[in-house]
């Protein structure tokens, strides 16, 4: 029984040693290894996924459509006119809440759902 190591085994040991030297390696599940010691870099900028913005955008138009469907278009427009007359921030809100094509489509859809 000698200390003879096969050529294949010696090559594998060599490859593992090179991998470890380069910073790679294997970590067993549950072991506290190198990856547990490194803190992930925190991102300084705030990122909002595109899907979230799209859903927020569509939700806003659904909200306006629901208000038009609930109040009726004439009553909705009357309230917007009152807001515009108040000036300042209320006028800006009236501008944002003005009915548009998507809001009218949403209002028709919601009206059909509610009967």
Task: Please tell me about this protein's structure.
- The structure is a single chain.
- The chain is an all-alpha fold and 115 residues long.
- The chain has a domain at 50-114.
- The chain contains six helices and no strands.
- It has helices at 7-21, 34-37, 50-71, 73-86, 89-96, 101-114.
- Helix 3 (50-71) crosses helix 4 (73-86), helix 3 (50-71) packs across helix 6 (101-114) and helix 4 (73-86) runs antiparallel to helix 5 (89-96).
- The chain is rod-shaped and about 95 Å long.
- The chain starts with 6 loop residues before the first helix and ends with a helix.
- The relative contact order is 0.09.
Compute the number of strand runs.
0
Overall radius of gyration = 32 Å
Secondary structure class reads mainly alpha
Please, what is the average pLDDT?
83
**N→C terminal distance:** 90 Å
Name the beta content range: under 5%
The oligomeric state of the chains shown is single chain
Helix and strand run = HHHHHH
Poorly predicted ranges (pLDDT <50, ≥5 residues)?
A: none
Features:
membrane; rod-shaped; transmembrane helix; 6 helices; single chain; transmembrane
Short structural summary:
With 115 residues, the chain is mostly helical.
Strand-helix topology:
Blueprint: H1 7-21, H2 34-37, H3 50-71, H4 73-86, H5 89-96, H6 101-114
